[in-house]
Amino acid sequence: MAYRTAAALGALFVTALAFGAYGCTSMEGGRVHSADEYRARVDATKEAGARTVLALSPAPDLGGHWPDELAQEESSGSCVDDGDVTRDQPTYSWDLDFADPAAYRAAVDHLRRTWQEEGLTVKNVPAPKQGEPGAGLPGITTTDKAGIDLSLRPDWYSGKPTVRADGGCMRHHGAYDDISGTDS
């Protein structure tokens, strides 16, 4: 009887230890990805945003450029390194020029239908109020099947119509400059 009790207590201890370790990993932000996995997430995020820009109809004036040439990399103050692990949040935005507010609204409606046809859940973003940047221009957001948050809405500061693709905060090995190929 004592043997069974000791074995049961031992199994319970090992199980509690395993759940505790898993909980600590979750508290730290999940598993640590390889540099290649992070690089793939960066590429997927940028591609998802570029596809969104190309799906707009009527199309904005891109000045003769492809969307990937116009992508602006953004940074996040809330996604910071922890200890010896790097955290980055691949986020890109595209400032867009439409012929007029009516063309922008038509593009929002078209993109909403496109995303719904892809089986994505689309959320409406109310238009900023009078006196705020982008006043009167509504927006939409979704999360694609790869978990990338996408939006078409007025920029919070400039009010310009903007597509944004956010790949989420990701823990990974390797410095971002090593992964992106940029020089510091």
By DSSP, the count of extended strands is 8
The main sheet orders its strands as: 1-3-7-6-5-4
What is the C-level CATH assignment of the largest domain?
Alpha Beta
As a whole number of angstroms, the C-alpha radius of gyration is 22 Å
Structural class: alpha+beta
| Overall geometric form | elongated
> Largest sheet, if any?
6 strands, antiparallel
Strand content: 15-25%
SSE ordering: HHHEEEHEEEEEH
Describe the structure.
The chain has 184 residues and is of the alpha+beta class. It folds into two domains: 1-30; 32-180, TBP-like (2-Layer Sandwich), CATH 3.30.2030. The chain is 40% helix and 18% strand. It has five helices and eight strands. It has helices at 2-28, 35-55, 67-70, 101-117, 176-180; strands at 72-74, 86-88, 91-95, 123-125, 139-143, 149-154, 161-166, 170-172. Strand 5 and strand 6 form a beta hairpin. The longest helix is centred in the N-terminal third of the chain and has 27 residues, at 2-28. The relative contact order is 0.18. Mean pLDDT is 83; it is low at 16-27 and 178-184.
In a nutshell, what does this entry contain?
Helix content is about 40%, strand content about 20%. It contains 5 helices and 8 strands; from the N terminus they run H-H-H-E-E-E-H-E-E-E-E-E-H.
List the helices and strands and how they pair.
Layout (H helix, E strand, L loop, with lengths): L1 H27 L6 H21 L11 H4 L1 E3 L11 E3 L2 E5 L5 H17 L5 E3 L13 E5 L5 E6 L6 E6 L3 E3 L3 H5 L4
